[in-house]
Amino acid sequence: MHIVTTIAGSDSGGGAGIQADLKTFQELDVFGTSVITALTAQNTQGVMDVLPIEQAFINKQFHALLEDFPISAIKTGMLFSSDIIRTIALAMTNLTIPLIVDPVMIAKGGETLLQQEAVEALRNNLLPLATIVTPNIPEAETLTARKIETVSDIRLAAQSLLQLGVQCVIIKGGHLANKDFAVDYVFFKNGKSFSMQTSRIATKNTHGTGCTFSAALTAFIGRQMPIEQAIVEAKKFIQLAITHNLSIGHGNGPTNHFAYQKFKESCEVTIGETQ
Ligand SMILES: Nc1ncnc2c1ncn2[C@@H]1O[C@H](COP(=O)(O)OP(=O)(O)O)[C@@H](O)[C@H]1O
Ligand SMILES: Cc1ncc(COP(=O)(O)OP(=O)(O)O)c(N)n1
């Protein structure tokens, strides 16, 4: 059994954060473990409050896992503060476990999940240790201090992130103004790149899409799947989770983690260039 870890915040509403990650891990046949960085009082309508966990206790959770389990992949989600980021980065130094960084910054409702002052720590302390980083467009803009409007802007932003030492950058196009398609752009350190296109699902139930995508990627990497195949398979997982989204709650409902196993054979991802 492959064992993977999510280092992230708890979403009491169950659609994002630790809860989304563990549901995804379970669906993909990996054993999920967790380090909780913050509690959120949250539902489909928004984040009401955030309670960060003390650094020393975050460290204890992480070391409890490292001492007992042969972890095969780790992902980070909501890290909230520069102190928490530095704690995780320090614990990751000298580990050779693949690290997937989802640079969560702002919730769908606009609430802060990463303090402004923590962006530098994310760039300087954690990204150099990352195997894959998965920003959405606003996150890529913040991390690179560049406006992103075109595919050429996406390529320049990815190159700037690769220069920090990240092995692979996936810039997610969920926030692009494309009515028909959801296109993500993948760039590797060795110069290889490709785009992944699926049909855009017209729904408001997209709470936790970023968390679910990066958790699926972590599960596939943890299962030792080759990296390009893991990225495409994670795109299929999120496409099916959004297609079969759940209309629960009064706001932006969650995605459906149970759809992939049932429908994976029927999901098409079109691979293209990044021009
Ligand atoms: N309406 C949609 N239909 C299909 N795929 C989507 C849709 N919205 C987002 N995605 C996909 O979900 C994944 C997460 O993207 P995004 O929503 O940009 O991340 P985040 O939740 O971090 O903002 C990406 O693969 C993106 O292309
Ligand atoms: C605890 C917690 N972590 C992360 C998020 C953001 O999740 P994301 O997948 O980016 O989804 P939306 O916030 O865009 O729905 C969160 N809300 N809570």
TrEMBL record:
- What is any Pfam family matched here? Phos_pyr_kin
Q: List keywords of the entry alphabetically.
A: ATP-binding, Kinase, Nucleotide-binding, Thiamine biosynthesis, Transferase
For the Pyridoxamine kinase/Phosphomethylpyrimidine kinase domain, which residue ranges apply? 11-256
User: Molecular function (GO) terms listed?
Assistant: ATP binding; hydroxymethylpyrimidine kinase activity; phosphomethylpyrimidine kinase activity
Which reaction(s) does the protein catalyse, per the Swiss-Prot or TrEMBL entry?
A: 4-amino-2-methyl-5-(phosphooxymethyl)pyrimidine + ATP = 4-amino-2-methyl-5-(diphosphooxymethyl)pyrimidine + ADP; 4-amino-5-hydroxymethyl-2-methylpyrimidine + ATP = 4-amino-2-methyl-5-(phosphooxymethyl)pyrimidine + ADP + H(+)
GO cellular component entries: cytosol
Q: What SUPFAM superfamilies does this protein's entry cite?
A: Ribokinase-like
Its annotated pathway reads: Cofactor biosynthesis; thiamine diphosphate biosynthesis; 4-amino-2-methyl-5-diphosphomethylpyrimidine from 5-amino-1-(5-phospho-D-ribosyl)imidazole: step 2/3; Cofactor biosynthesis; thiamine diphosphate biosynthesis; 4-amino-2-methyl-5-diphosphomethylpyrimidine from 5-amino-1-(5-phospho-D-ribosyl)imidazole: step 3/3
**Origin, by domain of life?**
Bacteria
Family annotation (CDD domains): HMPP_kinase
Give the InterPro entries listed for this entry: HMP/HMP-P_kinase_dom, PM/HMP-P_kinase-1, Ribokinase-like
| EC numbers | 2.7.1.49, 2.7.4.7
BP terms from Gene Ontology: thiamine biosynthetic process
Q: Which PANTHER family match?
A: HYDROXYMETHYLPYRIMIDINE_PHOSPHOMETHYLPYRIMIDINE KINASE THI20-RELATED (PTHR20858:SF17), PHOSPHOMETHYLPYRIMIDINE KINASE (PTHR20858)
Question: What family is reported?
Answer: Belongs to the ThiD family.
Descriptive protein name: Hydroxymethylpyrimidine/phosphomethylpyrimidine kinase
